[in-house]
## 1
Amino acid sequence: MITVGIDPDLKASGVAVIAGGKLVSLHNKPFCELLGWLSQWDKSAVLIKLENPEANKGLFAAHSNKNKAVSIRVATNVGQVMAVARLLHEMLEHNGYAVKLVSPLKGAAKKCKDDAEYFKKVTGWEGRSNADQRDAAMIAIYG
């Protein structure tokens, strides 16, 4: 079984592949390329774990002390990610993939997103990575 973790984003989603219980690759894939890229595997052998940003409630409370322009920008960015996640979910299921929606991660798994060294300790990954790819990997592993 192959597990693909996806951290949705407007420009390019973070994507991680777990095979045989091991993290084997990290990618950034634009929306329009993702389905074609996934077609390299038999759909019946793939589980997609997709982060569901809509599972976060009260997301904007942390931004209430910032100015109005910052609050509007944050709300816009979050709305864009929510839309991408919803469309990815719909597209993947429509095309026959098994999809599990995963709440955004917390705690030690979430720490890996912003801390590449900690991510390396947790996963054993030695290659380059960015925050979206690391988040996708944690979604695939712990989601």
## 2
Amino acid sequence: MSELRFTSEHEWLRLDSDGLVTVGITAYAQEALGDVVFVQLPELGAHAAGAEVAVLESVKAASSIAMPVDGEVVEVNGALEDAPETVNAEPLGAGWFFRLRLADNAVLSTLLDQAAYDRLLKANDDA
């Protein structure tokens, strides 16, 4: 599965060929935040779903990133420390936050696929 999965909190997850999952925020989320000026990345190690693992500061506000699923953070995107604007420029690419080893890969099937995420965005726009 190289396709993206999404949370209702506008995070994306991608299962990579090495079995790890890469996590970032969606284009919708970065647009809502505005220009990102600082990223505090998570500590390596196990984190429970829902726990705050990262903080973004933008010209508009500070925002917490919650751990989308249970897992162990095994890598962070250190490039964001020197270039936080990468989150705005490439939210679905080089602007990723961390990679994790899932406690259970089956949890990915419970997340939103692209079509369901698009419906969520449409509902947000209609509200």
## 3
Amino acid sequence: MFEIFLFVNPIGVYCYDTEVSVKKTVDELDISSSFHFVPITNSKVIKDDIIRRKTCGQTIDDIPEYTMAAYQALRNYHAIKLEYGNKKARCYLVSLQKAVSKDFNVYSQDLPKKVAIDLGLNYKRICDSKINKYIDDSIEQDKELARKFNIQTIPTTIFFNESGDDNGLLVEGTIAHDKLLALLKNSYCREPQEEEQKQVENGYLPRKHLRLM
């Protein structure tokens, strides 16, 4: 049983690709797993994603709208998690990311509502100001989790093997499918050997990490 934490930008282009790669790898290896999405939004996360989109040939026409969309997606995720549970919240986030992954400029103020309705959610319930305090508390808990794990890069993925010890495998940045397969097939959480060192140099960073109890 693997416990997987995905620290993501709620509308990040690389985050959607990472989530797809992780899910594909877990399914291919037939691994029993539990997913925890931890969306993170701040000025650095937003700036990094804008730069990545430019690298991919995407230009964001309205950066203030992008910033607003990121924070709204964050709050909607936590509202859905509180009102409908983790599974629906993850589905919402992935659907929203998919919609803007190729071109953020397709985003409109109606898109979050449309995604929610397509998932059978009551958007008015999600936007109810009565739950604002609980949303704030939930966001703060995720921030604390990121601090305890010392998350430096978004996206970051952490794997814990429930049948192993208390060490986890932390991977920063995007995860190519073949690289992730190799990481999970290798002996779990040992220090990088020669082949793994090449992966580190190529931007794949496995390292030991204390499990948060």
## 4
Amino acid sequence: MSDRFVYTSTLDPLARPLLEGLLHEYDSRYGSLFNPGGAAVELNRDPPEAFAPPRGAFVLLVRDGRAIGGGAFMRYDDETAEFKRIWTDAALRRQGLARRVLAALESLAWRQGYRRIYLTTGFRQPEAAGLYFDTGYTALFDPNEDLQARRSLPFEKLLVPRAEDLIAAE
């Protein structure tokens, strides 16, 4: 079993099952809470070009020819990338795949010149919030407040280069 990262587009047919899984997951957790059109409205809000270099990226973690995880980022401001669509196949959770996707996105964002990450997750995704806390993200909300009333949970992280980022920059 060999995993590899593929840097591609949201339009890549390889991404379709992953994005459909993400859509199903969001709809099952939130329904029309955020938008009467459901998760499809959010997933289609930003055009594919927003997640393309040099200002963005879309990454798939592929195993045996199948996307098992992925994520994206787009420009938020001159120094900040906004991470979106971080997801892993529901049948393969608890294997560290999301951490690997997150690390790949952070490394790529650094190499593209970003120094800060901004992202949000929903209040019905405690495993995502836990991942962000565990990987050094800072909550831009009070974790003791009523998260359901807040709905969207924003996080940030200041990036520092890893050894491989410095080597790649030479």
